[in-house]
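User: Before I run my own analysis I want an independent prediction to cross-check against. Here's the chain; please return only the structure tokens and, at the end, one sentence I can use as a sanity check.
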Amino acid sequence: PGWEWIFFVNVPVGAAVFAGVLALVATDGRDAHTAGADTASTSRRPRLDLPGAILATGATALLILGVTRSGDDDWSEMRVWLPLAGAAVAYALFALVQHRTREPLVPLGLLTRRPMVAGAFTMLVATALLVSCFFLGSMYLQHTVGLSAFRTGLVFLPVAVAVTVGAHVGGRLVGAVGPRWVAVGAMAVAAVGYGLLSRVPANGEVMDVLPGLVVAAVGIGPAFVAATTTAMAHVCPTQAGVTSGVVNTFHELGAALGVALASATAAASLGPAVTADGYEDAFLGGVLIALAAAAVTLGLAPRGRLPEGSARHVH
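Assistant: Structure tokens:
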């Protein structure tokens, strides 16, 4: 068995979760059926919006496929723009289905709310920046510094701690100054970290890359807290579940797009003749993305502090 086996870890876990969901849904249905008509009507579960789920999943897959292929081919190539065009069509159909169905997967009104958009945007960018840090940092440490995969993993332990510390500090700051300024400051700190990483030398060592990774991680941690708090603090309890689902979806989308964009930008450095140029370009791209995200968040996120008690509810 090789490294490919790490992907099989999700198979038994997913199967167990799937079986558990089936068991819980079946039990809930029998209880509602035997409890009488009134109880059944009040506990009726919404129908699954299968067309919406298929369209959203397919559109996202096509988007990631097109961005990933752009690292090897020009944007004018059919194998690049065709998946992107397909993604645009699929997302448009998804919006149409959500507008017409009685029980949409994601109510369109939720996606037009300013706190929801701000929180989802911050989550998307923060996740993309963090995953790009891990991806590009791992490639640099192994291809340029020459570390093994195991030693590279050890180098990232302080980076993971930095994310946790940053999130903890961000959680405290959210209640004091509000999530808007926490998100803006987090992106600014992340930009500083990426700026340090953009100066990596062609023949570097661990300490040439570790400080930048830690600084970026300290900045990204509070962004996660600000994103979740912004989106969740302004919704009614009945929409908390779908709001959380949307935020988590943007979290996963940010991870996929972060790797795709980083690998596309750094494609020149991942070939047989490894240089630092591709890494520098990718990290500079991270600086620009973080600064742009800070500016967008400053204008998009709601002003002021959280509503009374909402910060405690989120955490």
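Sanity check: The first helix runs from residue 10 to 34.
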